[in-house]
Every structure is written in C-alpha cells, then in structure tokens.
Amino acid sequence: MTTAIELQIRDARNVEREEAIALTIEAYRQYEDGFGQPFWSQYISNIRNQWEQGKDARRIVAEHDGKLLGAVLLYPPQEGLYEKLAAVIPYPEVRLLGVHPGYRGSGIATALLRDCAQRALNSGYDRLGLHTSQRMPDAVRLYRKLGFERAPEFDFPAADQITLVEAYRYSLHNGIPW
C-alpha cells in the first residue's frame, strides 16, 4: 500500500502489548536471514523485553480502523539505556519503530516519528535520537530523508560484535516539517 491512510497515534493500552510485540517482530522479520542465529533470537528477545519491561518507555501505536499498523517506544534520557553505551544521551530516544509489512510506504513510520518528536518538544527537548544500523537500509534511508543526522559519539557495537549500532539525531529547533 502506498497511499497515506488516516491514523490514530496514541499510547498503547496494556492489553495491546502482545499485539504490538507481534507487529514489531513481524516488521523486523525481513532482517532475520541477514542477522543469522543466535543474533536473530537475541534481537527477538530484546524486542519482547523492551515492550514488556522497558523502564520509563512510552509505548506508542498507530491504529487504523481498530487495527494496529505501527508501533514505537520512546525513552526519556537515562543512564544505561543501552547496555554497551556508557554515555547518557541527553534527549529522548526512539526505539523499535515497526510498521506492518503490508502498510509500508503509507506514512505510518513518519507519523510515529512525528508524534515522538512532538512529545520531545513538549517535554522541553531540542533533539530526538535513535539508533539503527546499515543492516537496515530502508530505515537509514527514511531517517536521512527526514533530516536525522549521524551522532557517532553515541555509536556502539551490537551483540554480534560485528554490526555497528549507529546513532542519529534530529534537531527540533526549527519544528517538525514532516
């Protein structure tokens, strides 16, 4: 589907967590072969853990006609957000942005990112951050298109010790044009 659809972006309800987890796993499944085992299993475990136990995370979903089509976690700045990163990132971080594979290209990821950026602005922050890797070229392309810039001082190695988890940030000084 390539046309924009009407969405409701809102906080996830507790009863929707399993559905949001399943949606996120399905969204990331395209990377399964490239990740290989056991890295893929660790990644799935991380998705589940972040949704179930993510400290201080805002759980946000995109809904259309009663169906969840996208999900994302938004974390406030905090120590230990990433196990392998000692630095505290001084702005909110987006994690595990996922869109139902059948609805990619319809603006859902951008709508979720816009909501996260607005929440960051409303909380007094001037930036929004996220991490991704070159293993996810579609995600990198989207973030760059929206104006996210690299923040290599917050990079760290992934659990496979091969992949570089790359930091990006978006300046909110001029608002949110997307």
TrEMBL record:
Enzyme Commission number(s) from the entry: 2.3.-.-
Keyword annotations: Acyltransferase, Transferase
Coiled coil: none
Pfam families: Acetyltransf_1
Single Gene Ontology MF annotation: acyltransferase activity
Keyword Acyltransferase in record: yes
Family annotation (PROSITE patterns): GNAT
Residue span(s) of domain N-acetyltransferase: 7-175
InterPro entries: Acyl_CoA_acyltransferase (IPR016181), Bact_Acetyltransf (IPR050832), GNAT_dom (IPR000182)
Record bears the keyword Acetylation: no
Secretion signal, residue range per the UniProt entry: none
Protein name, per record: GNAT family N-acetyltransferase
